[in-house]
Please model this.
Amino acid sequence: MNIKNIDIKPFPDQKPGTSGLRKKVAVFQQPHYLATFVQSILNTLTPAEKSKLVIGGDGRFFNPDALQIICKVAIANNVKELIIGQHGLLSTPAASCIIRKYNANGGFILSASHNPGGPLGDFGLKFNTANGGPAPESFTQNVYENTLKINQYFIADIGDIDCSTIGNQPIKNTTINVIDPVSDYANLMETLFDFSTIREHLTNKSISILFDAMHAITGPYAREIFVNRLGAPESALMNAEPKADFGGEHPDPNMAHAEKLTKQLFNKDGPDLGAASDGDGDRNMILGREFYVTPSDSLAIIAANAHLIPGYKLGLAGVARSMPTSRAIDVVAKQLKIPCYETPTGWKYFGNLLDAKKITLCGEESFGTGSNHIREKDGLWAVLCWLNILTVRNQSVKQITLEHWKAYGRHYYSRHDYENISSESANNLVNQLETTLPTLAGKTFGGMIVKHADNFSYTDPIDNATSSNQGIRILFEDGSRVIFRLSGTGTEGATLRVYLEKYTTDDCFLELSSNEALAPLSLIARDIAQILYFTDRTCPTVIT
Ligand code: G16
Model:
């Protein structure tokens, strides 16, 4: 077999963002673009780290072509074993599970997560390391530096590799091992949750669930877990056939994009639990009958009830949340007398804390929740947490959440996204905010006094790596917060995210709508950041 050495010029735009390299499909389709990036990743690994790598993706448009390119570059680079999800498919949590289970050195995850798919949509590639989690910033920075100077890549000159038949096949010095994408992950779930009790409740219909796979990767996983192993009817699944373009929809599990699911839940005869996951299966949205649980509340409620779940009955070592995530989890941690860490946005920042056993659970406002069972956030895991809690507490999602607020207080929370603004406007807005920061403490806005304002910076307690400029936060004396940051996962222009949080323990104010409770804070945020002036936008594009 021939190995071709292809001479290339570096691509200047291969800097990984919050979660790998995400671009329009057309960018990835440029000749040599993907192969060059894969070669840069392989150049960054040591020879020992190239022994065993996992490959799988969310099945979006370009997944099959990308799979072949990655395999052929890996074969040319003498990777000893490639473990590939059948048909090149693996949800992100399953990829993390498989890297850990098979002691692989890492893995390529082909996904642009919740971003739209199809020929005009987005594609992405992320590299996870041996712990199963997203590569840390130090690694992705080295990859980026390599992409700026790389001048050739190697590729096996062979026909397409069969990734549809489960089993081993040797190709040159590489063993190709095609595995079932679902069973290892489903088996892991069985070790964490009380499947027999959940099964009883689902089959005797004392609990009903509706899961929206949003035409994305979780369909087959949800069928295996909820229908085959837990006895839910097939009608418990919506949009469970994965499609390369996600049915032309946006696989982002929020009430705007999972509109049909939301409609069914906001109905007095709706199911007890509604849930959705995203393109690659790591995000989750939780709904009860006529009730929405914010991701921040979901994390706090799972933590407060974790002792009811077999996998966590021995207690939690600690918890963590990303900085913009509401502090509902902090209050639970305080009560449980366990540490609560505040990290920058991005799952990669939880990796060291999980590996060092400092934390058991972690989560983010961006619909991500997870635990030490893998090193990625995990959509179906979160749904199973809720199912398990519902079976033990025998209460509705709404009752459980209301009781939680009564016990711990409520963190009203909302995120306002201004999508697709020009990068120039976004940068000007952020620069202006930066300049204003030192002058804000002590000032009053809408009757609220600023206590502290800064640009968040984080020092990892395990390896002391520092990450700065992780979001502008304005903290008020009454405990409210407004945070501004630019998204690191978009592929068009810039997205400004404004996070609003207000805490109350007053029983009379526990059941306002978030809009109502956060309206004054929203005006203050628009005023401080001069959003209209810099973006010309009178309102956000998406509110979650
Ligand atoms: C990715 C990361 C998450 C992070 C999110 C933030 O999510 O994995 O840890 O919270 O990006 O996105 P942004 O920078 O746009 O606010 P995913 O699900 O897209 O991989």
User: Anything to note?
Assistant: The mean pLDDT is 96.
